[in-house]
Write a structure and sequence with these properties.
Number of helices: 2
Largest sheet: 5 strands, antiparallel
Strand content: 35-45%
Radius of gyration: 25 Å
Number of strands: 5
């Protein structure tokens, strides 16, 4: 009788440990999905700013380059401050840093210039690959 009792207790312990393991695995899978979704949103937002930085009439190109230098390219980076997932969209608070670079007149010696910083709120919707920009709600968000 005692042996059966101990076997039941051991079996119950195995069931409890296995059940807890399932919850841990499920939590890790959900966290990995949230991380991948957030990274996909970051890439979508960053592409907006990089596209703007690459334009021939980009804002940073309107100002004269430092003496003896010429404008070269710019690198846009973003961080996501907050993400609100909705039924069919995501509202994303984005901080942008675009750093323009200059080179000497021969195209060598690239150097970063003063970066441009901005804060925006964008709405994205799922697209075939990643997320598609829907609209800029920055003014509505920060007006009140």
């Amino acid at each position: 009788m005692r042996r059966i009792h101990w076997l039941l207790i051991a079996a119950l312990a195995v069931v409890i440990v296995a059940g807890a393991g399932v919850f841990v695995v499920r939590d890790r899978i959900e966290e990995a999905e949230r991380t991948a979704e957030r990274e996909s949103l970051r890439v979508a937002a960053e592409s907006i700013f990089q596209d703007r930085a690459d334009e021939k009439d980009a804002l940073w190109r309107r100002y004269p380059a430092p003496a003896g230098r010429v404008w070269s390219q710019a690198r846009a980076k973003v961080t996501l401050d907050r993400v609100e997932m909705r039924d069919t969209s995501a509202k994303v608070w984005v901080q942008e840093i675009t750093t323009p670079y200059t080179t000497d007149r021969s195209g060598g010696d690239p150097r970063p210039d003063v970066p441009y910083v901005g804060q925006y709120v964008y709405i994205f919707e799922p697209a075939e690959e990643g997320w598609a920009f829907v609209r800029d709600v920055t003014k509505q968000e920060f007006a009140g």
